[in-house]
Amino acid sequence: MERTFIAIKPDGVQRGLISEIVSRFERKGYKLVAIKLIVPSKEFAQKHYHDLKERPFFDGLCDFLSSGPVLAMVWEGEGVIKYGRKLIGATDPQKSEPGTIRGDLAVVVGRNIIHGSDGPETAEDEIALWFEPKELVSYTNNAEKWIYGVN
Ligand code: GTP
Ligand code: MG
């Protein structure tokens, strides 16, 4: 089953939005397979955002990501990479639709509270960067037969 890496950034954690955000993924019907609270180093943040290293905001972005606890998660479900990004909303909260996480809960692009992998390769790389394989929990979620139907 498809998996994506989702992180609540330091602003989302400090603003007390963990339960609100986790609940949106949970209620949708996705399965949580890994979760931990960590303060990434700046070097780690630079690895995570390596694709953006030429951008003028890169240094500030990495300082910000490493400025406090981040809630790192792996969520699993059919189409979770693409639809997870829909739940999150556009990068700039000024352009995110109401009803999305950033649209409802954030105001500026530099403090947009959540990260989600942008494609299958990124998801695989980011899961491997943030988690050891043994931290990914394999279990049956009994609600799945109601979420996907049987057969
Ligand atoms: P992530 O899920 O965090 O990767 O966001 P994204 O995929 O929607 O956007 P992208 O990967 O292009 O940018 C990564 C992060 O850099 C964004 O979430 C923003 O926090 C930040 N960012 C992007 N564009 C800007 C910008 O123009 N100015 C500032 N200050 N930050 C930006
Ligand atoms: Mg991105």
From TrEMBL:
EC class name: transferase
- Which coenzyme or cofactor does it need? Mg(2+)
Q: Which GO terms describe its biological process?
A: CTP biosynthetic process; GTP biosynthetic process; UTP biosynthetic process
Catalysed conversion reaction = a ribonucleoside 5'-diphosphate + ATP = a ribonucleoside 5'-triphosphate + ADP; a 2'-deoxyribonucleoside 5'-diphosphate + ATP = a 2'-deoxyribonucleoside 5'-triphosphate + ADP
Q: Identify the keywords attached in UniProt to this record, alphabetized.
A: ATP-binding, Kinase, Magnesium, Metal-binding, Nucleotide metabolism, Nucleotide-binding, Transferase
Functionally, this protein is described as follows:
Major role in the synthesis of nucleoside triphosphates other than ATP. The ATP gamma phosphate is transferred to the NDP beta phosphate via a ping-pong mechanism, using a phosphorylated active-site intermediate. Shows the highest specificity towards GDP.
> What name does this protein carry?
Nucleoside diphosphate kinase
Source organism per entry reads: Paspalum notatum var. saurae
**Taxonomic placement:** Eukaryota, Viridiplantae, Streptophyta, Embryophyta, Tracheophyta
